[in-house]
Protein 1
Amino acid sequence: MLARREHSRYELGDKLLSPRNSPSKHKILPPPETLSSAQIRAEINLLLDKLEANDLLSDQRFAENLTRQYLRKGKGLLALKQAYQSHQLDASITQPLLAALTHRWQEQANRVREKRFGSLPAANQKDAAKMQRFLAQRGFTPEQIRLAVFLY
C-alpha cells in the first residue's frame, strides 16, 4: 500500500484493521479468529511504529503531499482543514503548513473563480450567488469568497 502512495498513520492503520474484500487480503497477521481485536490492534500499532522508525510512514510527508494535492485541485482552507481532521493529523504538523500558506488563500480563491467564471465581474445577483456557492463548495472562507466575487 505504501508503494502506491503516502498514507497517514490513521489511514493505514484503518486499512490494516479492516482490509477490503476479504479478511485474508493482507497476510501480515495470523488469521483473525486466532487473535482478539485488542491483540490485532496491538500488532498493527507495533507494525506502524516500525514503519515510522524506518521512515516508510510519515504523517509529515503525508500532510505535505495532501496540501500540495488540495492546492493543485483548487481547494480552499476549510476543505484542507477538514481533510487534515479526517486523517487525524496532529496540529503540530498541520499548523506550520497552514501558516506557510496564509498569504496564498485569497490568490487561490481568485484563481479558482477566474478559471470557472472568467475574469468579468458578476453580471447580477444570481451570478454572484452562483460564484459564492461554487467557492463555498471548494472550501473557501466567507471572507475569501466575498473578496473573490465582489472585489475581484
Note: The chain has eight helices and no strands.
Protein 2
Amino acid sequence: MTSFGDLLGPPPTLLTGDDDAESDLLNGADPAVVAAAHPSASIAWAYLAEAALAGADKGTEPDLTRVTAGYAFARTGYHRGLDQLRRHGWKGYGPVPWSHEENRGFLRCVGALARAAQLIGEEDEYLRCLDLLNDSDARAIVELGLD
C-alpha cells in the first residue's frame, strides 16, 4: 500500500542512514573507498552497483563482467540494508518509503539487483526484487526507471 495509511499494517520503516558515508559520496569520494570504510552503508554499494551496470547492456550481448560486478555490489548493499531494516523493527514486510532519503540506498540496491538479474536471465530474482520494491513503495519502481 503506497499511501502508508493501513492502520492495521506495520508503520513505515525509516532508516537512519550513514551520515559520514553519504557526506563522502556527495563530496565526490570514490564509492569503493567509501564502501571499504563504511561497509554497512547501502548507499555506497548502490553507487558501485549502478556504476558497474551503467552501459553494461549496450551492444548485442551484455558485458557480463560489469553485470556480475553490479550484481555482487547490489546484493551486498541489499543484505546490509536488510540488516539495518531488521534493526529498525522491519519484519520482512511493510512500507519502506522512497521519500525518506536514508531508505534510498537500500531501495537503489534492490533496483540495481533487479536490473542485473534481468540482464543475466534470472527472471525469478528480477520479479522478487520488483515485488519487494512494490511492497516497500511503488514510487521506487518509477524513480529507479523499472516501470
Note: Helices lie at 19-26, 31-37, 42-53, 64-87, 104-119, 123-143.
